[in-house]
Amino acid sequence: MIPEESARAGDEEGRSVRGAVRVLIADDQPMVRMGLALILRTAAGIEVVGEAGDGAAAVRLAGDLRPDVVLMDIRMPVMDGVEATRRLAAEQPGCRVLALSTFDMDEYVVDALRAGACGFLPKDVTAEHLTAAVRTVAEGEAVVAPRLLTRLIATFVGAPPAATPQPAPSVLQDLTPREVEVLRLLAGGLDNTEIAQTLLISVSTVKKHVANLFAKLEVRDRAQAVIAAYESGLVRARTAVV
């Protein structure tokens, strides 16, 4: 039986594999942890350094092991994945959290993204997508399928009432008109290439606008920027999102 909290050395001398992405797996179901670990341990350039059965253990182990990425189940006993993510974001900003959930449409996923998670995966993710997501998050990018992100946020993030016109929220006042356009398109689920095509500008210019609006909104990634767009009322949820 796999222990609820465990660490694993990288080789016989206890060193990490040189250059490998160090991953901590946090899930209260031993079989899920085992399956994720088996997939990741067969992937080149990824090292599973530990496993935790609840959020408190994940925070503890992350402090000891300093992983690059934590695969964090959202719903766990003792401390849930949202609170664990919030603590890791505050205490270890270099550690990237990739949230896991059994359900595609899970309001706790949005809470985890607000707390600092860099992406979300369903637990039935394929081995190929899992390893690709871990590598992407380790490189500093966010991992949420744009259409899924839009559905999640449009469903679970509240926006101000649309009954009366309101002035631009203070969170958006520092954005240029072009940055507001880019943010609207981000919230619509478009990637950088699609935004460039829509606005007739280069992808590199889109990336500059995205970096600028991240800094002005004080968000870490695309997911948090899209949440800000909905919460500010810049983008409003539709009655049906597909």
Automatic annotation (TrEMBL):
Q: Which GO terms describe its biological process?
A: phosphorelay signal transduction system; regulation of DNA-templated transcription
For this protein, the record's SMART domains field holds: HTH_LUXR, REC
Do the record's keywords include Transcription regulation?
yes
Q: Where is the Response regulatory domain?
A: 22-138
The keyword Signal is assigned to this record: no
Q: Name one GO molecular function term.
A: DNA binding
Boundaries of every HTH luxR-type domain copy: 168-233
- Keyword tags: DNA-binding, Phosphoprotein, Transcription, Transcription regulation
Query: SUPFAM superfamilies this protein is in?
Result: CheY-like (SSF52172)
In Swiss-Prot or TrEMBL terms, this protein is called DNA-binding response regulator
Q: Which PROSITE patterns match?
A: HTH_LUXR_1, HTH_LUXR_2, RESPONSE_REGULATORY
Where are residues bearing 4-aspartylphosphate located in the sequence?
D73
> By its UniProt entry, which InterPro entries does this protein fall under?
CheY-like_superfamily, NreC/VraR/RcsB-like_REC, Sig_transdc_resp-reg_receiver, Tscrpt_reg_LuxR_C, WalR-like
